[in-house]
């Protein structure tokens, strides 16, 4: 491939929520990025609907939660309802835990919002270059990075960009994944569906029976924005060109819906279910749907991708800035691929549970038996929260030092989440002050949490970005610490190491950071008392 026209540290491919989040995170680390998106603009379709508590924690660190919440639905919309038609009574309902109300395990609450409302907020969260209408069509790996061939669809011009790393967030049909020769495991395409965006005067009715999703016997309905707008999602019919979408929506609403339906947009898409065989190929890293495609049941796909780049970006920064060795990037796949597999399994289970509810209702109506007013749900009220999977993710890799207190655990599963301060886990949310969480102490640095900062300060002259934070004594028991113990927290909020009692030696912290980052310390490190500067 000819010589590159420009150079950048990280080329981000894909301008959806995952790519935009990566851009914002890397900018805070001072990493030079450029993002290319083949579409001419941000997506006009609602697409992803749920921002879970873990994603909101990440967005809190970026200062975005107030903006996202202000444009989202009220908490009472954190519920799913099942009914025969949209205008019939519920025969089943369930809350989305962590969305419908605060949970004590997090300082934030998730929201129901549409992706086309979320993306502009993420775009505004950073100032680094974004090029719409520019597509990556080929790439070639070199000894020190990748050369990407880009095509500007407006002008037809070609350009070559050399990047130390390519971060691919370009969707389930990822060009980068295909060009890198990376295969996938899993069912693949499992269905074809259509989203119909429409207007109808349903607001008064919706306000009395709020929900984020209404499942009916003829597809499911989604309120799009607090001020109005709807989407109807249904299996794609065989005769797409001859389909009367307004008529179909009208019938699906039910006989009680005496409203005019105005169809605005129609989008056909494929439900995919797979996980990439590898998340890294040399200098190429896959994230979001490029790495794993998750069916929409439970709203986990986008959130999984946001957590991917939260795990990845601090590692990229460390390698590029010299305070981490290249082997640190190997831990990205080691840590995130098992989470993707578990999330895919949970999404499949969620889909089966939803179909079971609807099939039970269909059988009641078919037999003409005296149907109960409600159908018993085959899951608990914690459906769609998946708190164990969302907050209980556990990492077991070279970027975690176990303290011998417990064996390594698999990624969190299901609905149960028990806060723990064992290495590999997300640091539990604990209040440091009346309005400042432990999670607020983490950023573009490692954090040493200890009830005795004085004992540790003389041991923290390290070449790595590091802050010391006092842990209130009332939290020491939960964290498994004695009065002089400490926790070392990674920039992504996961516990990297724990010293339950006291510093085991003057060089213990230094050796721990070197082992976690796989590095030889840089000769000119950033100061320890402030985050890395952003140029």
In a nutshell, what does this entry contain?
This protein has 535 residues and is of the alpha+beta class. Helices cover 25% and strands 26% of the residues.
Secondary structure layout:
Layout: E1 6-13, H1 17-28, E2 33-37, E3 50-51, H2 53-61, H3 65-70, E4 79-82, E5 92-95, E6 111-112, H4 115-123, E7 130-132, E8 134-142, E9 145-152, E10 158-168, H5 175-179, E11 184-199, H6 203-208, E12 213-216, E13 219-225, E14 228-235, H7 245-253, E15 262-276, E16 280-281, E17 284-286, E18 292-293, H8 301-321, H9 330-367, H10 387-391, E19 431-433, E20 436-437, E21 446-450, H11 453-457, E22 466-470, E23 486-489, E24 495-499, H12 508-517
Parallel strand pairs: 1-2, 1-10, 2-7, 4-12, 10-17, 21-22
Antiparallel strand pairs: 3-6, 4-5, 8-9, 9-10, 11-14, 11-15, 12-13, 13-14, 15-18, 16-17, 19-20, 21-23, 23-24
Terminal CA distance reads 31 Å
Structural class: alpha+beta
Radius of gyration: 24 Å
Shape descriptor reads globular
Largest sheet features: 8 strands, mixed
Low-confidence stretches: 522-535
Fraction of residues in β-strands: 25-35%
Give me the number of helical elements: 12
Helix content: 25-40%
Mean pLDDT, rounded to whole units?
A: 89
How many strand units? 24
């Amino acid at each position: 491939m000819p010589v590159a026209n420009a150079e950048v540290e990280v080329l981000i491919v894909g301008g959806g929520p995952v790519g935009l989040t990566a851009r914002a995170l890397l900018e805070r680390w001072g990493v030079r990025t450029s993002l290319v998106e083949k579409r001419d603009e941000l997506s006009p379709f609602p697409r992803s609907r749920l921002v879970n508590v873990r994603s909101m924690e990440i967005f809190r660190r970026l200062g975005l939660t107030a903006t996202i919440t202000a444009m989202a639905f009220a908490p009472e919309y954190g519920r799913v309802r099942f009914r025969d038609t949209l205008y019939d009574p519920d025969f089943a309902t369930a809350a989305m835990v962590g969305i419908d109300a605060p949970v004590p395990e997090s300082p934030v609450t998730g929201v129901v919002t549409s992706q086309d409302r979320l993306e502009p907020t993420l775009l505004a969260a950073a100032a680094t270059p974004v090029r719409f209408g520019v597509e990556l069509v080929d790439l070639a790996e070199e000894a020190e990075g990748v050369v990407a061939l880009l095509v500007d669809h407006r002008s037809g011009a070609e350009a070559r960009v050399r990047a130390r790393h390519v971060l691919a967030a370009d969707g389930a049909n990822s060009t980068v994944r295909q060009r890198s020769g990376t295969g996938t495991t899993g069912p693949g395409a499992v269905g074809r569906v259509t989203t119909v965006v429409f207007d109808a005067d349903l607001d008064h009715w919706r306000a009395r029976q709020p929900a984020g999703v209404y499942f009916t016997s003829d597809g499911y309905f989604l309120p799009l924005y607090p001020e109005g707008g709807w989407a109807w999602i249904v299996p794609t019919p065989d005769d797409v060109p001859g389909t009367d979408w307004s008529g179909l929506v009208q019938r699906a609403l039910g006989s009680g819906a005496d409203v005019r339906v105005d169809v605005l947009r129609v989008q056909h898409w494929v439900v995919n279910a797979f996980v990439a065989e590898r998340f890294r190929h040399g200098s190429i890293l896959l994230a979001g749907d490029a790495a794993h495609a998750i069916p929409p049941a439970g709203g986990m796909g986008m959130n999984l991708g946001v957590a991917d780049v939260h795990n990845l970006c601090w590692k990229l920064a460390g390698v590029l800035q010299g305070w981490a060795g290249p082997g640190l990037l190997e831990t990205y796949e080691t840590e995130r691929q098992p989470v993707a597999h578990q999330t895919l399994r949970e999404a499949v289970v969620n889909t089966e549970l939803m179909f079971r509810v609807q099939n039970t209702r269909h059988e009641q109506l078919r037999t003409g038996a005296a149907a109960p007013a409600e159908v018993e749900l085959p899951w608990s009220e914690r459906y769609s929260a998946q708190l164990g999977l969302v907050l209980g993710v556990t990492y077991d890799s070279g970027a975690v030092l176990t303290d011998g207190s417990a064996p390594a655990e698999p990624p969190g599963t299901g609905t149960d989440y028990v806060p723990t301060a064992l290495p590999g886990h997300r640091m539990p949310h604990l209040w440091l002050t009346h309005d400042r969480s432990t999670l607020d102490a983490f950023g573009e640095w490692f954090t040493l949490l200890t009830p005795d900062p004085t004992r540790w300060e003389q041991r923290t002259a390290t070449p790595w970005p590091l802050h010391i934070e006092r842990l209130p004594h009332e939290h020491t028991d939960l964290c498994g610490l004695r009065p002089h113990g400490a926790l070392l927290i990674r920039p992504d909020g996961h516990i990297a190491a724990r010293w339950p009692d006291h510093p085991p030696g003057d060089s213990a912290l230094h050796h721990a950071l070197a082992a976690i980052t796989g590095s030889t310390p840089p000769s000119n490190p950033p100061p320890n008392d402030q985050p890395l500067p952003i140029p």
